[in-house]
Automatic annotation (TrEMBL):
SUPFAM superfamilies cross-referenced by the UniProt entry: Nucleotidyltransferase (SSF81301)
Segments forming domain Polymerase nucleotidyl transferase: 24-51
GO molecular function: nucleotidyltransferase activity
Superkingdom of the organism of origin: Bacteria
UniProt name for this protein: Polymerase nucleotidyl transferase domain-containing protein
Taxonomic classification: Bacteria, Bacillati, Actinomycetota, Actinomycetes, Glycomycetales
UniProt-listed Gene3D superfamilies: Beta Polymerase, domain 2
Organism: Glycomyces albidus
InterPro entries attached to this UniProt entry: NT_sf, Polymerase_NTP_transf_dom
Amino acid sequence: MHHSDHAKAIAASCAAAEAPGALGVALFGSVAKGTDHPHSDIDLVVAADTGPGIRVLHREGRMVTVSRKAPDELAAAFDRPWEAGAAVAAWRGARILHDPEGLMRALQARAEAWTWEAIGPDADRWAAGEFVGLAEEVHKVHGMLALGRARAAAANRLLIALSLPGPLAAAHRILYDSENDLWDAVAAAEGPAWARAWDAAAGVALAGHEAGCAAALDLYRLAAARLGPHLAGEDRAVVDTACNL
């Protein structure tokens, strides 16, 4: 059996096991879209009024992640800037496996109708706030380099590289149904300078340690150009200081 068909069969079996007491079950991610590879996990979302949480299962050699959430919590993702970009795209590509009362279809329809205008100002405020908070990592990279603490500098450089794309995706109004798609989507939106710096900071390109740290600091400065219009007062001072270290 082809790995995609195998994954879908496992998803159907797990959905049937989850169905009693559930308000709905849907398959998300690459398996739902048919873009999975043989090692992709199988992502199931269960709508239920009880027992929220995440379970990781092993079924026929495959990893299955079961996320159990209340209906209100599933719906709230559309209004949260830190979740909406991923949630909307994920719901649009989801395969509904169990939906006795139409709840999952209603959520999918909401995702299809959703636009960034619904949360635009909130998205900009959230992105700016996250960006300001990452100024601490900029200071740490400089400080750890000065102290010769290479691992600490590297850890903070990675925090910058991995933490900036989420806020920038919101600022660019990017939808992505998997974190695996986030990095390339933001690189495409930000352009070649960002892509080169991110590759060096994250280790895609063969840059040395200090060059990788410098690239992470460049990422912060590049993000400032995009998010700067949403900063004011003390936030602006924090960012300017970090960019000019």
